[in-house]
Amino acid sequence: MTLELARLAGVTAETATLDIGGWLGGPAHTLASEFGCAVEVLDLAEEFCRTGTAHTTRTGLGDLVSFRHGDARAMPYPLPAASFDLVWTQHNSMKIADKERLYIEIHRVLHPGGRLALHEILASPVSSIRFPVPWAGDPELNHLRPPE
Questions:
Q1: How many other CB atoms are found less than 10 A from the CB of residue 82?
Q2: What is the pLDDT of residues 42-84, one digit of tens each?
Q3: Is residue 147 part of a domain?
Q4: 65-69 and 110-119: which strand pairing?
Q5: Structure pTM?
Q6: Are 124 and 53 in contact (CB under 8 A)?
């Protein structure tokens, strides 16, 4: 799915990319190795950033993939940010309740004409979720929204 989403997003070697909630860097490593683009991973967990950095160094992708600790709802990029051609997020927004703030921040860090590539889980209008699920142990941690 990462490669398909990258193709749909038009990723090239020149695409400066921000991967929101990239954990240990799986999609970032794929984008860097397959397309040759620079990717910065922004993750809320400092431990993921440290471990992801170490793994990235071992894979030889340290010149293309970097990690930064921060909250996607208040990204650590100074105003005005407009630093990225592409913001990428894969299976992360279901953990963020304040989606309006998330998308305001995404817009702020994108260059004019920049793109958002996302692959997300949405709430189903016909069936309920049985907890626990991979992103939430109980309903209070679940922030899925319906497709509309």
A1: 13
A2: 999 999 999 999 999 999 999 999 999 999 999 999 877 789 9
A3: no
A4: unpaired
A5: 0.90
A6: no
